[in-house]
Amino acid sequence: MTADTDLWLDVAAVDDIPDGDALGACAAGHALTLYRVEGEVFATADLCTHGAARMCDGFLEGYETECPLHQGRFDIRSGKALNAPLTDDIRTYPVRCDGGRVLVRFE
């Protein structure tokens, strides 16, 4: 991959992600959760770092997502674990929107 555009994969339509909510997606073998807050889109790994819970089934309030099983919260902008029982941050991915599509960059 030599061109910058080769690093970005199309994973969803922006309009498929309700504002203030999350959507599960998969790209390049990665399970993701896409979030839309005030029109801005973010992406994290879909699996909670504490246990086998899908973050796309969690709850979103502002820029914080809460695990549906453990009530641990992450900041979707940085992946930072915000409270117990979480001890590890969640992976985040760079996102850009182009022509109504969500593009995620994988390294």
TrEMBL record:
| The keyword Iron belongs to this UniProt entry's keyword annotation | yes
Which CDD domains does the UniProt entry name for this protein? Rieske_RO_ferredoxin
A Pfam family annotated for this chain is Rieske
Name the Gene Ontology molecular function terms of this record.
Answer: 2 iron, 2 sulfur cluster binding; dioxygenase activity; metal ion binding
The lineage's top-level taxon is Bacteria
Q: Which InterPro entries match?
A: Rieske_2Fe-2S, Rieske_2Fe-2S_sf
By its UniProt entry, which PROSITE patterns does this protein fall under?
A: RIESKE
Key words of the record: 2Fe-2S, Dioxygenase, Iron, Iron-sulfur, Metal-binding, Oxidoreductase
The segment(s) forming the Rieske domain are 9-104
Annotated coiled-coil positions are none
Protein name listed in UniProt: Naphthalene 1,2-dioxygenase system ferredoxin subunit
